[in-house]
Amino acid sequence: MENKELLEVENLQTYFTLRKWGFLRVGEVKAVDGVDFELKKGEAVSIVGESGCGKSTLAKTILGLVEPTGGQVNFNGKTLDISDKKHLDWYRSKVGYIQQDPYGALPPFMTVRRILEEPMVINGIKDEKEREKRIHRALEDLKMTPVNEFINKFPHMLSGGQQQRIVIARSKILDPGLIVADEPVSMLDPSVRVEILELLKKLQDDYEMAVVYITHDLSTVRYFSERIFVMYGGKLIEKGPVEKILREAKHPYTKALLEAISDPDPENVKTFKKVPPGEPPSLANPPSGCRFHPRCPDFMEGKCEVEVPPEFILEDDQRVSCWLYEGED
Ligand code: SF4
User: Fold this and answer.
1) Tens digits of per-residue pLDDT, 169-186?
2) Residue 3: its pLDDT value, please?
3) Which of 320, 321, 322, 325 to mutate to test the pocket of ligand 1 (most atoms within 8 A of CB)?
């Protein structure tokens, strides 16, 4: 049977063991705890949540940088197996990664040319002219022109925004089908954030790349994602089309996040400063039942702290894990 999804994440779990004195097992951090979603070719989704909700661990698990404890990641119908080096090399050539900290992501003693050339050499692109052509195209796509002004520079000679453009250029140099961008603009000056997101959007359109955009900033998701997934306590608690979620969020946590954004207009990208009252849950000792229940204004005693809400599917494929919507699906 033909597989229409590019990426399928099925009941993904990533747990870390907590140890005392280096050997005594004292607990477990459930950073990703039963995450499901699919992504089509060329589609962009945003995964939104506060720091510590597990979204970066989810990104790393999808990238094959962390081994899942359970569940699986399928790409183009093949299950990711990080113990198989050949398969992992193939996977890494198909899935690009944009890190949060561009300076830390770039080798300081390599020029821009070598940074962009390296993945091609590793992946067996032997034709030097072809490599040079791709480097020039990537720099032009990222508006690093005239190319000769940048190609022989070292990372420290570039601004933060220019460094992040090089990270993006490197992530797409092998024409991957998917890019995972983990908070790609959060460490950049606010004045260049919009520009970088617009460039990423253009690349997604021009090359039909799928993008998983990880962010804590709900106000930037409208830029280029078609769907939003809201993450809380290691789980995706609401999913749906961007416009639907931004206008008619159902989950009390998503509503609180939206209220905390002072200006959701994408022309005025702002990071929300306020978050719902209370602390995010400890992933080592999460609350029983619904993980949002200690902070929830709609908490129903005897229900919410007892049973984990399943995912209810509402109109327009909006999905919400909250007992308030029981019987509405
Ligand atoms: Fe609030 Fe209960 Fe819904 Fe959780 S399940 S979000 S505690 S109403």
Assistant:
1) 999 999 999 999 999 998
2) 47
3) 322
